[in-house]
Write a structure and sequence with these properties.
Helix content: 10-25%
Number of helices: 3
Distance between the termini: 34 Å
Structural class: alpha+beta
Number of strands: 8
Strand content: 25-35%
Radius of gyration: 15 Å
DNA sequence: ATGATGATTAACT
DNA sequence: GTTAATCATCATG
């Protein structure tokens, strides 16, 4: 079952842990690819590490729209990352999808990534974007429709039970201490585990 | 128009 | 553990 847009129109800190175990799907020319979401990070508006902190710009427009739309950005001169805007219009908060466990279309992901090791397919935000074939043209996409959406945890049968680890975020220089990173305990596809 | 800055990754030692 | 690669976006002039 596709997750409804209203799911995203709540506080990011509530939505983020609920997103773990759900399935992120893309249907592109090459075929359908699916990963199980195992790691996410929250970015709020009143949060120095967030792109929305300094207000709305051309780049961050989608973060300030209605919850449930894709926010994609380019960084380090070579990588794209994928977020889902949450909450209500004008609020500027969202969830970065950091890692996923390949479920379907694994051969397609291998081709896109040029790697054969299944662990390395989507265990990082830019890797996940590449494996799923997400591009800038998906910017602002409505996550409850079309060829890019999320399926509920029980889509493929009774969901597996798991514990959620809450910790600090990765790769930022401000507001480092906020516990806004969530991942599935013990999952081998989570990035940068100790 | 120009310069600083990354919500990273891969390939090293 | 360290580091180079590389450019869109933003703030400033």
């Amino acid at each position: 079952m596709i997750v409804d847009i209203s799911f995203y129109q709540r506080d990011a800190l509530i939505v983020a842990p609920e997103l773990l175990g759900c399935y992120l799907v893309t249907e592109k020319q090459e075929g359908t690819t699916i990963v199980r979401i195992v790691e996410v990070e929250v970015y709020l508006q009143d949060d120095k590490a967030a792109h929305s902190y300094r207000g709305e710009t051309e780049r961050t427009r989608a973060l300030f729209g209605d919850g449930g739309h894709a926010y994609i950005y380019f960084t380090y001169g070579m990588h794209y990352c994928f977020n889902i805007a949450t909450s209500v219009k004008g609020r500027g908060e969202g969830i970065l999808i950091r890692a996923g466990e390949p479920v379907e279309g694994i051969e397609i992901m291998r081709q896109r990534r040029g790697k054969h090791n299944q662990i390395d397919l989507a265990n990082g935000p830019a890797k996940l974007v590449q494996a799923l074939g997400i591009t800038k043209s998906d910017y602002g996409h409505d996550m409850s429709t079309g060829n890019l959406y999320v399926l509920s945890k029980d889509h493929f049968g009774p969901p597996e039970r798991f514990a959620i680890v809450t910790t600090t975020r990765v790769g930022i220089s401000e507001d480092k201490d906020l516990p806004y990173r969530f991942y599935i305990e013990g999952n081998p596809f989570v990035s940068r585990t100790k």
